[in-house]
Amino acid sequence: MGMLVFDGLRESLKSARVVSKARRKWKHWRSGRDTQAALSWLARERDAALQELEHLRERYLRLEKRAIERNLVEPCRALFVYPEQEDVPKHSLPIGAGNSVTKQARGRIVWNGLSDDQAFHLEMECLRRVGDSQVSLDGRCHFPQLLTWDATARSFTTTHNGTPLDKLQRTVSVPDIEAQLSSIAMTLEKASVAHLDIAGGKNVTVDEAGTLCLIDFDIACLDGFPLSEKIQRRYEAFLAAGGYVGFVEELRKATLENPMIEPS
């Protein structure tokens, strides 16, 4: 009996050593894999940062003759002036006020070339402008409405305006599609906002009533002034495609080619 117990313990110990050795090998392999991923990520961040520095250098050289007249230290803050919270225009919400979404603005140097602060101010200003410039005659709201924000945390809360087109699970009837698309484009043009990230419909939502809404302004251009090299390239493509006319075509394509959208 004692020998059986001893043999059992010996086999268990042997198995434990094998498992331990395998775990050490796996951890070593994983560490190496993560190191390579980290180095690759750092390389992308470095290249993106260098592109943004070159972009800023070229812009400074173009503006140098006006350097005394304008404050070039914090151009972002000088550009974006939004109202005090109590002065936000009160629109009738298309949905219940409790149905909202909170977002924290983040700058991603590889994706949009912005700092956290720039990303926050850019999206806040875009939402403020389109909120003030709505041209829809039927009372529909085609953009998220600002509810609250926290500049310190760079977060804000807006109305939730439906499901992204690329996430639809069932057919939705959308009335007056052309009128809605036209209203969206006219509002953007009136507000001097160029939305540069339709992304195949992921940034376009639709609610139960069939109202289309444009969301996520973290890649956008205000007054023809791109804040980063990444946004400048997108804006140049926007202009080459026909500006707001081309934007409507892209928006129409993302909407009408979605099999879950049913024009009515």
From TrEMBL:
It comes from the Bacteria. Keywords: Coiled coil. Residues 39-70 form a coiled coil. The keyword Coiled coil applies. This is Serine/threonine protein kinase. The lineage of its organism: Bacteria, Pseudomonadati, Pseudomonadota, Gammaproteobacteria, Oceanospirillales.
